[in-house]
Structures are given as C-alpha cells and as structure tokens.
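Practice problem 4.
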C-alpha cells in the first residue's frame, strides 16, 4: 500500500515532469517559429566573408543566401501561371568582384534616385543618402560598373513576409560584390513595431551584423521583420504597380517562397544625383 508521503512524492514528480514537458514543447515551438521567420526572410547575401543561407531572413534557393538562409521546399506542382513580363534585353551578367568597399564618392547632402529598368517595368527608388551613405554609395558604384545589369531577381516570398529579392549576379542567392558594407539606418522612423512597410527597399544580409553586399529586397506589402536590414530607399508608385504584377504571378513552389513565376530581370540599373 502506498503511504501518503510516497503518494505526495509521486504527485510532485508527475507535476515536475509535466512542467518539463511544457517547457520542452515551448522551446520547440519557439525554435520552429524562429526557423520559419528566418527561412521566410531569405533576404541575404554572401559577401567575401560570409556564406549566406533573407532572410529577411534563412531560405533562398539551394542552400543559398537570403534575408535569412535555408533552401525552400520542393515545388508542389503548382499550376502554370502566365509570365506577365517581357523577354530580357540582350547581354550577360558581368563577373565582377572587389576586395573592399568603394571609397565614398557621393554627396550625402544631395538627393539620389535609382532606376531599375526591368523586364516587368521600371521601378523608381528614392535613395536615403544621408541616412545610409555607405549603402547608397555602394549601389551608386555598382550600378555605374554595370554590376546589376542582366541580373535576375531570384526570390519571391508571398507568405509571412512579402518581398522580392534581387541583386545577386548568380541568381542563386549566393552572389555578391566580394565586399561587405556596414548596417545603417536601423532606427529609421518608418520601421515601426518590427514592420518594414510596403515600398521599402532594404539590404539582405547573412543574419549577422554588417554582412550586406549587393543583394536587396523590395517590400510590396507590410512585412513583419526585425530592424536588422538596412532600409535605404523608397519605391515610387509606378514601381509598386510593377511589384504588384510580379507578386500576383506568384512563385514556383506554390508554397509562398521560391523563384518568381514572372521573369524579373534587371536590364539596366542606374543611380542619378538630382
């Protein structure tokens, strides 16, 4: 027969085990949630010092770099969606790499705009030179070198966050200019309640500070993200219409994270001082 003391100890042990199980379940759910956020992010780049696998961000192709970095699930045989974009202009991606960030050459007190002439339409972007000088200077330098010309926007995320990722010369999520630039403007007034508002252009990274290179993402709908990705531009109304067209065509996995069904190629990128 079990004594009261033995019974008390048994009940205490069972309570302890239940508490441990709940803690374990809670930690597992937290890891899964963080993993989903990271993979959804997929907005990230691989510089000369960091191999990317986003975010904004852990998903981007075949174990590629993203705003956060693991590979998306295999395609779920989604229905074929007509490509709403035109054929790319003739030409090929230049294979270029540099060992260090370019010297500062922009006027941080001036206004700069970037135009992405894509196969789906022109995307105009007002750049934040005073708030993100290293980033804008790098984009001005790379655009002048033709680094972005003929590159494909390789990732579209339509669940959890809503972004189009571009700027990788390999179109695989692993490319970059060979150097990295520091994070900037992470306290931008537009980033409220851990949300990047529609119309934001921000840097992808490896998930670690100061690992941005050339990959960036365009936000076509308010997206919940931590303020870890340098916001350096705002998309104009015409550009938002282009993004809406691309988003409506969907991505190739049918699961909300993959290559866009639209053939989004940057025929020409230019940065202009106003």
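Answer key:
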């Amino acid at each position: 027969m079990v004594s009261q003391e033995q019974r008390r100890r048994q009940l205490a042990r069972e309570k302890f085990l239940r508490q441990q199980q709940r803690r374990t379940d809670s930690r597992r759910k937290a890891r899964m949630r963080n993993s989903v956020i990271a993979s959804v992010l997929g907005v990230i780049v691989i510089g000369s010092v960091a191999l990317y696998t986003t975010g904004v961000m852990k998903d981007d192709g075949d174990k590629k770099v993203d705003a956060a970095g693991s590979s998306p699930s295999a395609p779920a045989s989604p229905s074929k969606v007509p490509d709403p974009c035109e054929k790319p202009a003739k030409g090929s991606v230049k294979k270029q790499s540099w060992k260090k960030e370019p010297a500062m050459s922009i006027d941080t007190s001036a206004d700069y705009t970037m135009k992405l002439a894509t196969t789906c339409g022109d995307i105009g972007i007002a750049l934040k030179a005073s708030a993100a000088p290293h980033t804008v200077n790098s984009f001005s330098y790379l655009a002048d070198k033709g680094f972005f010309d003929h590159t494909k926007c390789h990732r579209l995320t339509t669940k959890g966050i809503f972004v189009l990722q571009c700027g990788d010369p390999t179109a695989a999520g692993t490319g970059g200019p060979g150097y990295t630039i520091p994070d900037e403007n992470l306290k931008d007034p537009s980033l409220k309640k851990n949300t990047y508002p529609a119309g934001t252009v921000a840097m992808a990274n490896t998930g670690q500070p100061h690992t941005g290179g050339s990959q960036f993402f365009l936000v076509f709908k308010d997206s919940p993200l931590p303020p870890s990705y340098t916001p350096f531009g705002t998309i104009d109304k015409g550009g938002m219409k282009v993004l809406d067209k691309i988003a409506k065509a969907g991505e190739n996995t049918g699961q909300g994270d993959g290559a866009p069904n639209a053939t989004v190629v940057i025929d020409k990128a230019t940065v202009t001082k106003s």
